[in-house]
Amino acid sequence: MKSVILFIFLTYFWVIKLKCVSSRHFANMKPCPEFFSKFTNSVDELLGDWHVALLIMDEVEETFEERSLCIQGKLLKVNSTELIQIWNIEIPQIFHQDRTELYFPTRIIEPGIWLVQSPLGGEFHGTILESDGSSYLLIVYCGWQDNNSVHLMTLAMSRNNVVTPKQKLHFLSLFTKNGYDPFKNKIVSWSDC
Fold first, then answer.
1. What does CATH list as the number for 2-26+45-189?
2. Which terminus of the chain has a smaller tally of CB atoms within 10 A, N or C?
3. Residue 56 in contact with residue 186, Cβ under 8 Å?
4. Residue closest to 155 by CA, chosen among 17, 13, 51
5. What is the rounded CA–CA span in Å between residue 141 and residue 33?
6. Strands 48-57 and 186-189
């Protein structure tokens, strides 16, 4: 039963969302935000452990329940042009287990632009909006739908489980400057991880 539920979750999140299958439900996916990554530092400063503090999606009807999900990850360098992203997802209410681990091989196009392989096939790109490698990382993930680049999600990640109110305000201000609208975007935060 656990494997069936895991398959359904992965199919929804990583195949439908990342491959952007055309359907009535996903027909209104928004274009990928247009901005240039200003991250020019070494990717080495981003290596190590991360905690997803905020998740932004375009579909406001998403049913993610705040505090029902914890995502922690690690960025590891394979070589000068490749990373591996390892994400541990905890959803005890659904999987009845402690963790599910996902691996995402990632090619570094530029320090702030990555091409990510989905565990179920396909690829999507990540663009670093802003980072202070010692405390936070803001990254926008986009995929393809009908040959158009569409926004999948934006993550605000922190090095620890706590995002200060000052950081959260900075993140939301930066997101707003880059076209995010709290009335059109679903912003999910976690505080119990």
1. 2.40.128.20
2. N
3. yes
4. 51
5. 10
6. antiparallel
- Write the DSSP string, 141-185: EEEEETTEEEEEEEEEEESSS---HHHHHHHHHHHHHTT--TTTS
Which among 115, 112, 149 is positioned nearest to 129, based on CA atoms? 112
Of 45-54, 125-134, 146-155, minimum mean pLDDT range:
146-155
The DSSP 8-state label assigned to residue 112 in this structure reads T
pLDDT digits (tens, 9 = 90+) for 60-79: 555 555 556 788 999 999 99
Which residues, 6 or more positions from 24, have their beta carbon under 8 angstroms from its beta carbon?
Answer: none
Which backbone phi and psi does 133 adopt, to 5 degrees?
A: -50, -25
Is the C-alpha dihedral spanning 3, 114, 178, 137 positive or negative? Answer: positive
Per-domain boundaries in the chain: 2-26+45-189
DSSP string of 45-83? GG-EEEEEEEEEES-TT--PPTTS-EEEEEEEEEETTEE
CA distance 89 to 55: 13
Question: What integer pLDDT is reported at residue 28 of this predicted model?
Answer: 66
- Between CA 114 and CA 183 the distance in angstroms is 29
| Interatomic CA distance for residues 61 and 79, integer angstroms | 40
pTM reported for the whole predicted model:
0.79
